[in-house]
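Quick one, T. Sequence first:
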Amino acid sequence: MRRSRDLVFSIGALAVAAVFWVEASNSRYESALFEGFGLNALQFPRALLTLWTVLAGILLLGALLKPAASGGPVDWKPAMFTIAGTFAYFFLMVYLGFILASVVFVLVMPFLLGYRNVPVILIMSIAVPVAVWLTFVHLLQIQLPRSPWFAIF
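Structure tokens:
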């Protein structure tokens, strides 16, 4: 059971990483802000994406090399919800911008995965996207996808 879960999760993580690598290769994110330092705005996201890809690859290798254990049926719904939700989030970000897509993602995913503490979910669905947006846009001066409906974000 654990082997198949790790296998599905690692394949899903590698698929999401592939989509993000394609997006991170887009020249529209290039910035001259750190040009004198030999950096650009994509250095940090690409470094995190490299770490993500390596860890997913290690998990995939571990799942392939681990002997199959007998067990009960595997509940695939959480993995499928996570993969589908991540792809939906990626595409929603283009149409809603980072803030709105992130609020929807952080609000919906815990419910789909069975977490039911509504006050925590509501607070986190606002606090996490806003904190990430403030950090990237105002502190690091790295632009995130903007909403076509709200000029501020």
